[in-house]
Q: What sequence folds into this?
């Protein structure tokens, strides 16, 4: 595999060379170390608290983790999805004299590494927290890293590269697999509901033939149980079935005919995936596979920058749900969720109740800070920059529809909860204004981070800057509200919050209008 | 030599290419012409092994999916896609290894210089402009030292100097008995290159001409006469 290995080797070296020059890399390393330290620490103390720190219990955790990973892997192989090829691979590797089976392994290497990493982390974790013997940990790691990965590689080749078995066979296999998964989940819930949701019941369930004799996934788990709890009829039968399947599958994968017919689907998928990745990087995501556009009658109005707004209206009119979409549903869910919560936990007498909805709104906007809609596409259009109008007007008309939409979103988030909390009408209106301002803030801070960072420091750093700016904007309003609320009264604090938020929004708008000056900023 | 026999490609019920057969001899430059949606790219992709198809495709008397056939076959796609983290030089190095083409370091240097990429050989794939990507794609195809080469709209995105160089390369390939198939819309660009022309419409070849047959007749006149269009439209 020397030529394919060459791509991996050089890609890794070049990426490392580039990464060490970026400050974002070091931040990311620190975050990852902190994350793993946190996970290790909290699991360790949890294991001590609940007195689950033996090899037997470790094997249950390992089996559950293995179940999760293997189920996801096998589903994706049988569906002939999950292997990610890039357009560059369709260009250079598919027409090259590479063995198509090796090309599958080349694409699957990430899955093998993830599985090996999973085994390594859990084995270290087991030795440190569950008194697992080093020998058993090493055997487990080698079982996963070599045997299970070889098993998965053979399965990958047998599914993706198969040119003999008809599509119908894989469709039937998918149905069987999903049936097994659903039945297993239902049976587990049923078993635990009868015997009680206790850890010792989970152990007996995981070690029972019911789980360890589930084809492939259960058989792999049987090998793990054989290593940790020793030989029993259940573990021996499961392990033997695993070994037989392993030998048959490896033999089939080696001798199966594969001339590369899968390249057609892989190249198509690579193209689609590249497009989706491009959109995802810009924070745009669609839950719908294809957009259905309506035919509409529309009178085109507006000159100069105003034309942007009317064009957007036309585009939205063609949408099935006009300006509303997934985000509207999220707002509705949050609004109803708050109303239900306040119905059961009465807050109507709370002195600071007027700050509760703005707090939830601020948190929600922070969570969805990367979500972008049609306005961001304006910056990809050269005509936006050629329109003979001022930057501020262009920015206003490019984002006007977003503000209109946010009035609607603000209403559906605020009104249900406000009614339950018995808020007065002026407060409800002010809360909606705060939502509109915070949403505008999010939009302008996102633009501002693009203006400040451009393409110099990469997407990760740009996201961090955006979150930082958004945090500052929200922070100023919150601090002002808290200070005024403590020093004067909650009502004055609320009024100060609106004024400061409005002021910060206007400042953000003025700063970010520079995005409309030159297209190179948006590149 | 390139042989296409009864090539049919269907997408569901839609027939993109219908029973197409043609042959391009060694040392011959063939051009595949046709309006948008005629099926040119489908034929090119089928020959390159990127699509499933019915019928037969032979490269130097071998089945096109045979690894030995792929070893002597080069393909320049319409839209080049580079490995983000490989440099220009590393793209060629990969091709050299994958095809075991025997191209020397000196030959690679000369190739890069010829397409004005010698000062950009350390640039990464994601740092290249579309025109540069196209040049790298052409260099990679030439680094194979192919017996059969397929070029899908090769001149798009190239600067005039690179177009001139590519035309010279095609003449050299022909002199070295390499089979060349070019799919293009840019009739003007291939005027002096072709030996045999295949005109396609609606998934079928509606005419094929050799240069001797048409003599001094203008390529555009032939094309529009076949497809029913007007060159002044």
A:
């Amino acid at each position: 595999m020397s030529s394919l290995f060459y791509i991996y080797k050089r890609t890794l070296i070049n990426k490392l060379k580039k990464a060490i020059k970026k400050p974002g890399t070091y931040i990311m390393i620190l975050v990852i170390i902190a994350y793993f330290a946190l996970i290790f620490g909290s699991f360790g103390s949890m294991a001590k608290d609940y007195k689950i720190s033996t090899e037997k219990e470790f094997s249950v955790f390992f089996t559950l983790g293995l179940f999760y990973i293997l189920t996801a892997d096998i589903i994706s192989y049988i569906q002939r999805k999950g292997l990610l090829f890039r357009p560059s691979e369709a260009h250079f590797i598919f027409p090259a004299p590479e063995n198509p089976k090796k090309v599958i392994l080349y694409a699957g290497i990430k899955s093998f590494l993830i599985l090996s990493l999973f085994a390594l982390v859990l084995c270290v974790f087991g030795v440190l927290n569950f008194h697992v013997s080093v020998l058993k940990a090493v055997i487990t790691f080698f079982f996963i890293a070599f045997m299970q990965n070889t098993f998965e590689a053979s399965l990958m080749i047998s599914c993706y590269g198969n040119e003999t078995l008809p599509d119908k066979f894989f469709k039937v296999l998918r149905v069987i697999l999903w049936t097994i998964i659903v039945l297993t989940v239902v049976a587990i819930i049923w078993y635990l509901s009868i015997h009680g949701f206790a850890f010792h019941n989970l152990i007996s369930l995981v070690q029972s033939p019911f789980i360890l004799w589930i084809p492939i996934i259960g058989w792999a788990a049987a090998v793990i149980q054989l290593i940790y709890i020793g030989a029993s009829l259940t573990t021996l039968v499961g392990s033997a079935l695993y070994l037989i399947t392993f030998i048959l599958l490896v033999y089939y994968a080696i001798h199966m005919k594969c001339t590369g017919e899968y390249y057609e689907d892989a190249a198509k998928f690579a193209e689609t995936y590249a497009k989706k990745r491009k959109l995802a990087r810009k924070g745009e995501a669609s839950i719908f596979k294809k957009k259905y556009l309506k035919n509409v009658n529309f009178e085109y109005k507006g000159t100069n920058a105003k034309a942007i707004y009317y064009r957007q209206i036309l585009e939205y009119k063609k949408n099935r749900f006009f300006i509303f979409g997934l985000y509207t549903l999220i707002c509705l869910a949050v609004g109803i969720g708050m109303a239900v919560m306040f119905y059961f936990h009465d807050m109507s007498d709370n002195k600071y109740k007027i700050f509760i909805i703005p707090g939830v709104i601020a948190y929600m906007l922070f969570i969805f800070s990367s979500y972008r809609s049609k306005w961001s596409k304006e910056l990809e259009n050269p005509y936006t920059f050629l329109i003979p109008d001022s930057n501020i007007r262009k920015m206003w008309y490019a984002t006007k529809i977003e503000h209109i939409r946010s009035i609607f979103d603000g209403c559906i988030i605020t009104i249900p909860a406000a009614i339950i909390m018995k808020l007065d009408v002026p407060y409800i209106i002010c809360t909606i204004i705060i939502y509109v301002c915070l949403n505008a803030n999010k939009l302008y801070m996102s633009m501002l981070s693009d203006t400040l960072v451009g393409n110099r420091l990469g997407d990760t750093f740009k996201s961090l800057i955006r979150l930082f700016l958004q945090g500052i904007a929200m922070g100023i309003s919150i601090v002002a509200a808290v200070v005024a609320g403590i020093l004067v009264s909650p009502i004055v604090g609320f009024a100060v919050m609106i004024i400061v938020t409005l002021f910060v929004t206007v400042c953000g708008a003025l700063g970010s209008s520079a995005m409309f000056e030159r297209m190179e900023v948006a590149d | 030599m390139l042989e296409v026999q009864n090539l049919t490609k269907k997408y569901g019920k839609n027939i993109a290419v219908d029973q197409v057969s043609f042959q391009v001899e060694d040392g011959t430059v063939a051009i595949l012409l046709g309006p948008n949606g005629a099926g040119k790219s489908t034929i090119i992709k089928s020959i390159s092994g990127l699509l499933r198809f019915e019928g037969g495709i032979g490269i130097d008397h071998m089945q096109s999916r045979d690894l030995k056939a792929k070893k002597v076959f080069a393909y320049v796609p319409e839209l080049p896609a580079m490995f983000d983290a490989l440099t220009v030089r590393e793209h060629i190095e990969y091709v050299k290894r994958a095809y075991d083409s025997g191209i020397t370091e000196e030959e690679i240097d000369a190739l890069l210089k010829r397409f004005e990429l010698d000062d950009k050989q350390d640039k990464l794939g994601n740092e290249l402009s579309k025109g540069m990507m196209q040049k790298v794609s052409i260099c990679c195809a030439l680094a194979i030292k192919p017996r059969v080469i397929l070029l899908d709209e090769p001149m798009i995105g190239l600067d005039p100097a690179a177009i001139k160089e590519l035309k010279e390369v095609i003449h050299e390939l022909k002199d070295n008995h390499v089979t060349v198939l070019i799919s293009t819309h840019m009739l003007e660009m291939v005027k002096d290159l072709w030996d045999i022309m295949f005109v396609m419409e609606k998934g079928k070849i509606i005419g094929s001409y050799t240069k001797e047959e048409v003599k001094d007749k203008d390529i555009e006149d032939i094309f529009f006469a076949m497809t029913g269009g007007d060159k002044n439209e």
Notes: Residues 410 and 435 of chain A are 6 Å apart (CA to CA). The mean pLDDT of chain A is 83.
